[in-house]
Amino acid sequence: MEKAATAKLLQRHVSRNPRSYASVVILQRNSRSLDNKTLIALYEKLTPGIKALREGEAIKTEIAARKLSVNGATPADFTLKNEVEKAVKLSDYRGKYLLIDFWASWCGPCRASFPHMRELYAQYKDKNFEILSISTDRDKAAWLKAVKEENNPWPQAHDAKSEVSKNTFNVQVLPTLFLLDPKGKIIAQKLEGSELDKKLKELMP
Q1: Which residues form a coiled coil (predicted)?
Q2: Model confidence over 149-167: pLDDT tens digits?
Q3: Residues of 156-189 as b/e, b for ≥16 C-beta within 10 angstroms?
Q4: Which of 32, 84, 93, 97 shows the smallest number of beta carbons within 10 Å?
């Protein structure tokens, strides 16, 4: 009900004020509460000059990322650095089921999930399965410290500017998980706890 009310208020304001800077600011700040169809419809109501503003460009980027991060989509290849400054490419994992885990050192729920993920990794690592943890920490030292403390046995990567998390996967909250098939296609996302267990068991009995 709250999301529906928000959408209705935004619809009214943007429709009446498509040339207003306030419209694009309000729309950008509330974009997470809108579904794709509603967000696109409201964005299209804005005038070209308002769309060209920083907030308008942010909405445009989010819309594009949403289209690329739905189930069935194949995310664009990317390259990040791991904890020893070696390149990590998404395409390196083609041919395997890949669980991409977006997290950060300061995220309690992220780190609380690692013990169970380690159990799953031990269970499936020899069944054409890999995990890639991508940190969105801006503080590299904090990330490296957390990587050392957790000592997770799967690959790590650092997305300091959130370019991959935001522009490729439209990550809005942490932790967020995406499961890709061996062809690089997203087959599940936002899996937690028993849902992740169930999906992996289904794919790799």
Answers
A1: none
A2: 999 999 999 999 999 998 8
A3: bbbbeebebbbbbbbbeebbbbbbbbeebebebb
A4: 84
